[in-house]
């Protein structure tokens, strides 16, 4: 707050001291840079036309209304012309008013501090956005169909189907209004139903897990991008030159860039779509090579937001393709995921 200021019922009132200029006063309040070069000086002069006949003609003892100008900048200026820094300056100046007034609302003098020290205090004030965390618990179920292409004879056939209930735990950190990170752990219990009598399925049930990290940025209010990397304990089938098949699991490195578009907003609901590509790294199992593969997935979902929590459901589809030494494996999956998140 600049020196020689008080608050009335509606405005911050600055009392002009000897030697002050309107430009220096606005710099002390952190708003000189608004509206371009000289624009803030002109605007304040216009708002206080009864006291200021010219931007260069102010006198000691004059009272200038400041807060009204700040509120109008916050509400009327188009967002594409007011940067986040400018909005932060506005917030800083309108919050700590009570520190500079007594119970009767009289002026408090602080002549020992200069305009420069006041500006430094403004720059050190807390920003408008405070980072926060959310915890997400997501449960769901999916159905998968696995198809295999035998390199030895060129035949393609459905190998098995799988039903997989799942649970995911996710920690999300919002660093700014637009940048976030995620750390998540997923666990699925996969029940397998073979289509081929010669397919060994290890008792018909396996667990599939993954650990992932993600960083993302909202480019607009309704559109954002993210990049995810992690390790997935994936299910594979090793073919042989004789045509036999064997199920196995091995860790696979996964990269997944994605985008999210919210196309309907009806507070507190929103409807969104998600699209992503995936890269699956190469590996080996029992001296058998697993080649790198590609995949894609998409989802459409509905979310309801509460004060400190949110609930939503996504319907998803994915397609993954990766090869072993004798077999090209394609996995097609549909599923429903529902989750609840809490802000900490």
The percent range for strand residues is: over 45%
Number of strands: 16
CATH architecture annotation of the largest domain: Beta Barrel
What value does the average pLDDT take?
75
Compressed to H and E, one letter per element, the order equals: EEHHEHHHEEEEEEEEEEEEE
Number of domains: 2
What would the CATH topology of the largest domain be? Answer: Lipocalin
**The CATH top-level class label of the largest domain:** Mainly Beta
What structural category do the secondary elements indicate? mainly beta
Number of helices: 5
Low-confidence segments: 74-128
Identify the overall geometry: elongated
Main sheet strand line-up: 4-5-6-8-9-10-11-14-15-16
Q: Which percent bin holds the helix content?
A: 10-25%
Features:
single chain, 344 residues, mainly beta, Lipocalin, 3-stranded antiparallel sheet, 16 strands, elongated
Describe the protein's topology.
Elements: E1 5-7, E2 12-15, H1 22-28, H2 39-47, E3 63-65, H3 67-76, H4 84-94, H5 115-123, E4 132-150, E5 156-174, E6 179-194, E7 199-200, E8 205-218, E9 223-239, E10 245-266, E11 269-280, E12 283-285, E13 288-290, E14 293-305, E15 309-323, E16 327-343
Parallel strand pairs: 7-10
Antiparallel strand pairs: 1-2, 2-3, 4-5, 4-16, 5-6, 6-8, 8-9, 9-10, 10-11, 11-14, 12-13, 14-15, 15-16
Helix pairs in contact: 1-5, 3-4
